[in-house]
Amino acid sequence: MSILDWPEAERPRERLLAHGAASLSDGELLAIFLRTGVAGHTAVDVARNLLIRFGSLRALLEADVETFSQHFGMGPAKYAQLQASVEMNRRYMAELMRTGQAMEDPNSVRRYLKSKLRHEKHELFGCLFLDTKHKPLEFEILFRGTISSVAVYPREVVKRAIANNAAAVILTHNHPSGNATPSEADRRLTQRLTESLALVDVRVLDHIIIGEGEPLSMMEYGWM
Asked: What is the pTM of this model?
């Protein structure tokens, strides 16, 4: 049966228009992207099958073109479209974040940082540099590490803060394991960076850790 034969209230596209994208499951959202199914299978069937084979929407979005194209009905063209949609989302988040003060719209900042770091398979450490009004100036990935650690050098962080003429900074790094809880080493590093940046009058506003779920704010948990 074609999706067009479904009751209108059950069709993913119509449900999205009526109730918003958040009301749809991962499979339904993916089905709208795919647009059409394959012989004997609707777009929803194909989408659900892809999610089962990859294990999650995230794994599907992070797959390389060779792995993605191994699945029936998929190929380089679909892969390019999917990656373009992912990149558009990242750029949208960046633009949304830059339009307001970072600490007045913390959710936009966290979504942006998540879009930059969540898909990475190795630990990365970055800084969001802010001006005197806490408006974003620049985001930079400063250090790249292994699957379980990354070496961070306070001197280099201070140099980049000065180069960006920053008055404040939001620190961030990812945990590829998925568990965003900061380690004792994370807490010590945050303290060292806070003290080092204070010497050049740069304030550390937060340290955001990106894991599997929602980004974790060390400031909100009272860890800095």
From this structure: 0.71
